[in-house]
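Q: Could you fold this chain for me?
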Amino acid sequence: MNWFVGLVIPKFEEYDNYMVELPKGLRSFHPEDLHLTVAFLGNCGHKAALHAWEKLVQEVYFMPFPLMPGALVPFGSPKNPSAYSIVPTIGKEMATKLIARYRDPFLQEVSAKPDLRPPQPHITIVRPSRNSTTEEQKQHLFWANNLHFPESTSVIHTLALYTWADDRRVKQFKIVAEQKMD
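A: Sure. Below is the predicted structure, expressed as structure tokens.
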């Protein structure tokens, strides 16, 4: 079971309509799975994840901020992406600052390896099958390049500790603890 700390993303306007007719080999995320990862803790275990959360969440503070979805881009291998994620247009700078400020303390608290990559805020909405054919991969990219969310903003105000959902056929993740910022 993997654990991570993330910003809760409210369901985008029309999200369900965009997920109705996906190309073969793409699996969409449930609207309640939408998040922006601040710190990926990995398979550190329930006790360590909860301890890190309880110790560090009181130090986390941010003013609620607007977020607007931007382009949907492939993540992972350029030839065989592992995810298609939204990169925000509005709110990206604030999300970048939050990741830069809080990722390392959470990783250190669970004795995870440091993440040396620069913060790259994104919201994964679909994952391709690992067995996708070359033709399916082309269809996935075409679909992603032609998907445009409405220009509407939502307010980000909640940080949460996530792990895998009990039934991953329905949802991928569940929130174990959360902290709303006022």
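A (continued): The first strand starts at residue 3 and ends at 8.
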